[in-house]
Amino acid sequence: MALLRVSAVTKVYGPLKALDGIDLTVEAGTFHGLIGPNGSGKSTLLKAIAGAHLPTTGSILFDDTDITAMPPYQRARNGLSLKFQITAVLTELSVYDNVLLALQSAEGYGALLRSRSRQRLDAEVMQALERFRLADRADDLAGELSHGEQQWLEIAMALAPRPKLLLLDEPTGGMSPEERRVTGELLTPIKQDCALVIVEHDLDFIKNICDRLTVLDQGRVLGTGTVAEIEGDARVQEIYTRRV
Amino acid sequence: MLPVIELAVFAALVVTPFLLADRTDLITLVTNVIILSLLALSFDLCWGFSGIMSFGQALFFGVAGYVVALVGRDLEFSQLWATLPLAMLVGGLLAAGLAVFLLLGKRTPSSIFVAFGTLTGAYAAERLVAGWQYVGAGNGLSAIRLMAFGDYEFVEGVEFYAVALAALALVYAASRYLVRSQMGLVLAGMRQNEERLAFFGYRVQVFKALVFSFAGMIAGLSGALYSYHQGFTGPSNLGPGLSTTAVIYCLFGGSGTLIGPVIGTAAIEVLSYVLADTDAIRQFWPVILGVVLLVVVAFQPSGLLGLLVSSRERIGSYGARKAVR
């Protein structure tokens, strides 16, 4: 069943057509990779899905709801979650509070004021931190974490509200090879609960964890298919893959 | 360290009337400090905790002050159990109305837009009042009916001081509850990265509007007490001048701390009083005060409190972890 259906989406910035009639379908319970050279429109597409930029034309259906013009907070409440390309953990808050902030987002204004879920969410916060190997850093400021740990923290935050679809923009950017390997291990188990759209330059990483790939070039879809199909697509091989 | 400072400041305010019982002038000075602290605290909630750059806190302060003055003049009523809540209601509603215009638009407003919007609101109100005969125009309203409780009327002195201190204590406790709650965590996150919070599902502008309205209530309470205490209110009480003074009180003491604005207000008002009363520098004390303010703001951006309280302690922790384990 299609969880996300992007249809004929374009995004125009003045004379530049960043997205040019993009079609993309993501099935529930699958990991879908977006690859392409710099400037191909991967991050712009991700932001259009998350609501950071509204498409110029086209439509985006998520879980049978038209979210094309929805503000980001409504998309998040509908089960979409985003990890930014540039790490956006809240550096002045503790690691624990970063995750608590993500987890408590479903609470109402009165409940937040009365701190009704503070104790109830404690176990969930620690569980999320343990899953991403950050439990022993819970009391540290997020700004004191290494770059790789901040990336993990942000993935933990993005997953905390139990989204149906997680959008990850270059989650292994700036990580060591070992950290990339661990990131792959950490992401794999989420598939049973959450679909994933991931933008990544590391082709080995993306091939290892994704079920399907979509190749973008100059704002257009060059090809979509399984990893094997994309690897075997001579057009992609020749025109694109060697340039990544 | 921060709770110790908070306790020390409130303990000092409690014992002050006993130490200065025979100095009505100083009791009046400290009462003014307490009342203006409320105004500075209202700005701190906006800027220090929520990232709303409000240059218009005096608008809520001044309008509420005019309202209680007019109720006293036209209705011959000044019972504090009704007029102080009325002032808070006026301040809160006015702030909520401004928030609808400035904060709840379709697009996320920039800090500059909010700063200029609030500044313009305060300026426009000052000009409006200065030309409106019904509210005394440029002369303002004087001989305001004394604040009363039953048959008892509060004049300057220890009794008025006690009311002002009780108001500050209540507001402080409520504000502390807010900023240490899970909603306070949202505000702390919002101040750092609004966009990130929107992608968690928070409707950031609504949180801002709520805090802005609450701060408007506090400024309204402050304005009513100030009018009663001074026995006068005028156009300058709702203009950019007083709004900016509140900003300076807060930054001087340390924003994002609640107690910082109280310390900042006390430091500036007491310093002004002492300098103005010193014969050798009577002619140029404002210059000295100005230089002190500039030095602190330029070289100690976290204010006086930043000398004693670390950034980590100022922001604090919000989870149950430390409380439970």
UniProtKB/TrEMBL annotation, chain A:
One GO CC annotation: plasma membrane
Domain of life where this protein originates: Bacteria
Xref: Pfam families: ABC_tran (PF00005)
SMART domains in the cross-refs: AAA (SM00382)
Gene3D superfamilies, alphabetized: P-loop containing nucleotide triphosphate hydrolases
Entry keywords, A to Z: ATP-binding, Nucleotide-binding, Transport
GO molecular function: ATP binding; ATP hydrolysis activity
Alphabetical list of InterPro entries matching this protein: AAA+_ATPase, ABC_AA/LPS_Transport, ABC_transporter-like_ATP-bd, P-loop_NTPase
The keyword Coiled coil belongs to this UniProt entry's keyword annotation: no
Domain ABC transporter intervals: 4-243
PANTHER family to which the protein is assigned, alphabetical: ABC TRANSPORTER ATP-BINDING PROTEIN, CONSERVED COMPONENT OF ABC TRANSPORTER FOR NATURAL AMINO ACIDS-RELATED
Protein name according to UniProt: ABC transporter ATP-binding protein
TrEMBL record, chain B:
Chief location category: membrane
Membrane disposition: Multi-pass membrane protein
Subcellular location: Cell membrane
Chaperone as UniProt keyword: no
Pfam family, one: BPD_transp_2
Residues annotated as transmembrane: 47-68, 80-104, 160-179, 200-226, 246-275, 287-309
GO molecular function: branched-chain amino acid transmembrane transporter activity
Keyword match Membrane: yes
GO cellular component: plasma membrane
UniProt keyword list: Cell membrane, Membrane, Transmembrane, Transmembrane helix
PANTHER family the record matches: ABC TRANSPORTER ATP-BINDING PROTEIN, HIGH-AFFINITY BRANCHED-CHAIN AMINO ACID TRANSPORT SYSTEM PERMEASE
Protein name: Branched-chain amino acid ABC transporter permease
